[in-house]
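#structure-requests
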Amino acid sequence: MRHWSSWSKNESYDFSKNLVEGLRYVGGEGSANEFEMCGTPYRLLLSNQHYGMDSSNSYIDVLLERGDGTNFHPVFAAEMVQDISREFSPWRVFNVTRIEIGDWVHDMVMLDELFSARRQRDNLAFQLEYTLPKVKDLKP
């Protein structure tokens, strides 16, 4: 959840259309974005973005809908918050207003695992490219 509103509400982020294997951005208009997770269609609706009273937090309402081939059905709704006083602060769930337990939960857990694996691969790639060559030149 912490990644979605960032990549889905800005179509200029071309790098984000294929964030991880199994997740495919289908498209969207404005704050309604569609994607597929392992072939299952989903729609993410973002609305009511606003700042808190002290302007250090940004809030947004999130509605996740799962498609069944003909219609989309709401499965999760929440208000999310981001601490805008910190650079690169992730969005986090602030207030859950709807949750329907079903197959979509497995898809989201798998999505989180895919993001974690991607972070580990990126970390390893960085170490291989920058750290190991420098260590190789060190004298015992």
